[in-house]
Amino acid sequence: MNALSHCFRLALLAALVPASLLRAQAETCAGWVVADDASVRMLDEQGGTVFQLATGAFPDVTVSAVGPRLIVRDGGGTRILDRAGVLQGAVIANLGGYQQVAFGEDRVVVVDYDRTRIFDLDGNQVGAAIPRTGPQQQSAVVGAERVVVIDDGEVRIFDRAGQQVGASIPKSGAYRQVVKTTKDRVIVVDDNGTKIFDKDGLQKGATIARTGTNRQRVVVDGDRVVVVDDDRVRIFDADGGAKGAPITKTGTARQDVVVCGGRVIVIDDDRVRVFDREGGAIGAPVTNTGTNRQRVTTTKDRIVITDDNRTEVFDKDMVPQGAPIAKTGVDAQSVVASDDAIAVIDQDRVRVFDDAGAQQGVSIPKSGWDTQRVRIDGDRILVTDTDQVRAFDLDGDPVGSPIPVTYVEEYDVLLFPQFFTVVDDFSTVTIYDRDANALGQPIQVGYGVQHVQATWDRVLVIDDSDLRLFDQLGQPVGGTTTVVGEPWAQPVCWTAGAIESFGTGCGGADQNAFGDPRIGGTLFYEVVGPASSLGILNVGFEELAPPLSLVALGAPGCFVYAPLGLPYTVLTDTEGFASVPVSLPSAAANVGFAYTTQFFLVDPTANQLGLVASDGARTTVGEGL
User: What Cα–Cα distance (Å) separates residue 273 from each residue in 88, 113, 288, 490, 549?
Assistant: First the structure.
């Protein structure tokens, strides 16, 4: 049996990070967790009760997609449950005061009045308790594969094993420090400046001293740290290196900053300026033609800037897309945008534009007494008036007939991927398909409907103390669940990890892949083939479609399923067996990553090429199983 080399582990873990290699994964949902005044329960997709746990008064529940896990906190302590309601480890007793919980990646951090404790998702305490060093209760931040504990006078960084890394970071001002994290950096802000640390607690670059009177505000995005002072904005890389010159404010108030899509957008009283990640100015400043500060809306590749008088659409290089969109009412416009459409809302109408700034369809006039509200999802746009709801496609064309309503508030109309719902006059909930056709009959509710939630194919209606489940056709699923007091509910969904075998091997080589394909999990890739044979395990980050046949090289029936990626040398034992363990990183950024494995073994007797190949295995890294 062969162990995975340290270098190969590092190479594989590094390869898991690039966002360009991520693949979209559909969520898996198992139902809803429901908390009422005295219990927590799980409802499955058929409306049945998976479990019900009696708790203290008013329990608090957090859903962690990693695992997945349900973190339940009441006056007595904290419980970590799996989705079947099985307690992981023991109850984490409340040791005094208000117990706080932070979680991230595969760690649950419990903060009591006098100490902080770290637990894994199986409820096992990791490392020793971390005692507080100041008079007040600690706080904690989980990120960068680290647990950062904040005391009154210092910040300490701990690894996933609960061991402190680096020295304590003392505060330099009067108030408690603030911590932000990126994929691999910890940023500490106090009264006098900002410091950037790596995961090992080593400071990167010099302290970024404040230049104004007030504490700095910090915005982090990937490998960029944007520091906002009273009088300027500065951009730094992950090692604390300044990118470009300081961006001095041109107005009287502190600047606002939006970081999105590789752009740093700086908003002054009188203009908006856009910079790249190197601090270089992109295009010309966009002058404010009104009195109030401009507002910025971003999409994947568009920057939309609105002032008191108009809305302008730009691409990421600040090239105007279409003409300015002048307001038609007295009040300033508002904007709702997606990657596919931009809706500009005036007092008297809604107009839909594409990403080139061209109006789609005709204006949608207001029919009620209040300003219209807009929701966009995929290829549908919903426009809500006080007397009707209308659906439109991305071309601005009506879809279906208008839906008359008596009274709707902002969150009474919800647009989901498969359907939308309308709560009317606190008395009915109706489910519509995306073509505005009613599905089933209106659902009668009391004058206390709290909210509606949905997954891909289920709708949960919470009405006072009653919970009812419906399918995507509006048909009831299961019965009514009655709870105590005012319930809170959240769907339990996660991105599922998976291991799939595909293709065929040749020459008797067979791969077996198994384990835990979740972030932080361990997997095993095994092969059975010729005895005492030298070979490689190829970890590929693409798949060949169709696979490459080796018949021309003298190996009929043998195929290559992925280009050469990371090869690892293996040697089968006298029974023809070899195994490679792989530990997946715990960073949430790796969720959705997919890679392919295949073994190639030397066998001079198998064919003219003297090589045999196994079948392929496709591993997708998920949050849970």
Answer: 51, 45, 11, 40, 54
